């Protein structure tokens, strides 16, 4: 049997685990359990408080599901912010995993209460809200960090390191796609997650691009280290009728002129979480597929394809090796990526609480600056589409 | 062992095999052997004459390679047209597989000599030349047929029939790609096939789109039965420096408003003949990859993915079954597709010679009308690119 | 986006999480973290005590890694058994993940202290020890449960249900393999996990069959519901020299005469955790590969292959659906299987503590009876090999 | 576009193509067209004569299918041997692709008439017949060559060269399998190919082992260069009832003590031509699958898996490169392997006719010696099975 090890990031810190609270995420929601599972598996957080639902009964049942003590199961996030801020053993951070249009007031409320915020993407619906949140962070006060889990897969980290080391030469072109099929069906009356994602009142100007395109945009930046200079987008509705797009064809130009073709769709039957990229450079290519996340395909120009596989040794670079918890072939998947993310969040928030500057770059975490840029990406796509697919800049500044 | 059979299309006709000549295709070229292998494997043609190279020594050696009698190994295609037209046992058809800019005079010359022409794609470099060839065909005279081999894979035929039968419902969106990596390297002084493909004097306004984009365009029409109404294209040069594009991002709109995202590149390291499509409809999807041509992936909405595999039975429709020569699992590949194409060409030309109207639609063959439309596609891409990616119509008429 | 849910088995019980202790599993070991991660992710256990290493410093550091309070970090498992049995808030169960030859005294010690035991496989090295442990369980006293995680993958559960429902007809033949490559290298002086596995003094009569063959044996029974009547085995050493086998070719006969071909090896370069089975019946086949655990391949006789994929709907049966935590395409892997196992263990131990009979069959858990049978399998393989590959029965009784 | 070439073996020799005749292979049979397609695609043979069926009408129609002149379409193979031997332009070789029990008289008849014989495998049903045919060949007289097409895949040649060059180190263990599903169904009254294969009167002592196990046995020798010293076999009937086996589990020992596990079955639903091997050595492994013949998977110990793909360059050795006809990614499959075999047969028979010693070893061809050894393999399996799976030698001599 191959020898593996649990990477050190899943060791609880010497001072013990941090305390985590949730707003949203209770029964009936989709992503709350993803965050919570990541936090548990990271071995760096205890989930001790929550305002898990706006429905009081559901909030109580959800708190029991997560073994949250009744006195820390709140019916309203404002009460939670106040009470937790006042406790000696109050939460060290709060996760905001509510519908997008509510991110701003909740995140602002916890930041004002002095509590660090972990916020699902996109950070907000409007650029103005995003700018406002950015102004509330920085300096020595509480911080806001976004949750982009896919970049915390070991083999994405491997890809990033290989690109940075020049193993595929100069970047030449990229294709990235995120394809699903959930929009083929009309949302049912109980399918709250779909209802708010398709309603302009709650989702803003975009549905699929805001929901999954933001992951693709973030991955582009993460793996290449480049910024998006400009883009062109076409929006389509290919699935069940709805006012917002379920599909987008986007062409982008990265710093240095690298062309990118992006395909975003939630109306592609048979595609479930088809998040994939191909990065081609002057000396080779790299391909990764979220549905088979253990394998990074490396195609050196003029040599056989190599399947670089998660595990220790056999070409795995240190940046990836620190995310390896099980030996090669003993699969890790999405919850492991979430756990890697939550371990990184614990480390960053621990650094900040210890008076240090959090090493966001080294931990591959995104703060409010990147959150704002992600919101600008969504708006640039919507603007380009509205202007017939014209080239559109992302805004006054990059990341 | 599963029972298979050699589909009837590989039976020689009762009157014996037809006689075939070649212009181009000798030693040093790439595609001549592909055509010749297809013709041999089809069991419907004897290759008996050729002007296989403009270099006399190479022409003679090439004729010997193919067991062509010395007196029918010509040094010049004009001599060949004249002599073969005069023989009682002259060729029934000529294959033109020379560089694109020479297609027009050669094809015109053989048509004028009364000999049917089988022409590689694209039919010509200019729209005017294409229109001219079209005017020379039709009626009871000799005909010109294009060689698009990929649509003669059994499982492409299966896809076409399933789309037509409504098995994936209404078409909703399509992605098609043709990716290779040959343009990563500069063409060497002996690499004639690359030299003319990258030189505007011989290749015209486009390199990659003309070379492989035309296959993707043709496949779109073949599998969906729809026409391209308009398109937008961006050209890029991602590989070795050259004056023409090696990469194109194209967005198309088919009849009925179906959006298509097309990715064409000869500068994608690790991609060799990555010709693939996904067709998504209201009831499911179909995916096919030329590099694994035996498997058609069918993803019904709400049911498990099905791998429909070439062979008799197990969901194979009659249109595909007639192209099945070996039992399931006993692989057929590209030469089999070429052989299917050459069998169809023999049947069509046999029909014409017998005074019948050739059943091009039923045989999935393309005549000069489609050849012209393919040339228009290339020009529409180049025009759109020149106009900053503006929407561009294909021309006065569709197929 | 597809709608998923966290299956109810990851909800903490109304009475709160159970308390878990560990013997073994600290820094330097391999499998301790696998158990611990599964327990954490299951959301049904708090790890509160441990004798994590026989080395005191390592034991203390390991306890800190897992956030175990210093007063419950024991240096000796005997002290732990005594102290925990005496505490009002003592552990509800102990995990024994030490080298195999120590399972018997430790398990016996905790059972005698009235504490339920969760024991890694194989249960013991000798049949006598296994029989002894069996006699110590049963009735209303503490129980012993084995950890076979692979049968807790959702798609293995799906396979089992499909076999039971007759979807592949009568069973006709099976192939099962578990292939790795760790034995290609000599064990280094610090590689304790390999040193004891290859030493007859600690590993007993078998290395690879005891280590991974037991998983294959257990899977056979689990998926088919049949018992092994007899077997023939050949042992080989194909990797680095060592006194015990690293490879076994085994032929088995299941109840009803179904032939099985089993291949076990830890000396197959390029194989990491290649645990795979094909089950063929009169109406079709099922294939599963641990390295790609989301996909169950179903090959109906005379119909296209179907890829039944983990997720809700699309052919997933209720037995599998209850193990689905993330939507289709959002990958689950080995830690999820461990978490499913630890959830089942919590339910079973909760049932016993509530005075009920634990529903081992329904929860797909194995008690001491199956543990004994697993030890008999190892000895039957060794006996057959010693007798030149003669047919060998497993023992006086089946499961 | 990548540059490819038609390997020189598909060039007709300077003296023109050889003349080929067939006994068997007409309408209603399975494999005749495979041989004929290979011969045509090889560009080295003209098929000019045949006794294609014992049914006269079928023989005449089949001759027309293949464009054989009526005066060389024989009703009886004896007439054909006599007439062709007498013609100045008589056939250079005859293909015998009739049921196995008729191979001996037909092959003997043509050898006696001075005509080289190309015989399908297994060479005969009995060892005695095989020995008799061997005595009729050798020296300067006509020769008999067997048709094992799978070893003529380019990537099998690549595997063989890599093993010989020590790229995977010392051989340590092998697994080889050939799995199909045709025996799940009873043979229908018109399914002549199945009827004779399952009838001991025509098939001899074995069905599946004789039909496809012989390919596996031959591949073992081809790829490793080792001989089988002894084997143990179990026969099973897992599909439709029949007197002979449809499944065999075989354990073999190669020269040097290398253990091999072989699985042969025609009763595995969903398996069509699942001929696969894994060869593991001290320094790595090689895996090949006939259904995806372009890819040879190379797993160096301690490095990433490499997918060595058919094409020029990128690690392809000269032994394989000479079988490369299409550029990488432009698929070759089974008919290409047959064509490579028929090219080799033409070269060998041309050598013999020119008075040289045919280079069977270099051409990877098998003569009567190997044919005899293949028959011995079948009998050794049957003998071992009859003796309860006892170790059984192959016979007095190896290859």
Automatic annotation (TrEMBL), chains A, B, C, D:
Residues 19-134 form the Gfo/Idh/MocA-like oxidoreductase N-terminal domain. Pfam families: GFO_IDH_MocA (PF01408), GFO_IDH_MocA_C3 (PF22725). Coiled coil: none annotated. GO terms for molecular function: nucleotide binding; oxidoreductase activity. The keyword Oxidoreductase applies. It comes from the Bacteria. Residues 156-286 form the GFO/IDH/MocA-like oxidoreductase domain. Keywords: Oxidoreductase. PANTHER family: BCDNA.GH03377. This is Gfo/Idh/MocA family oxidoreductase.
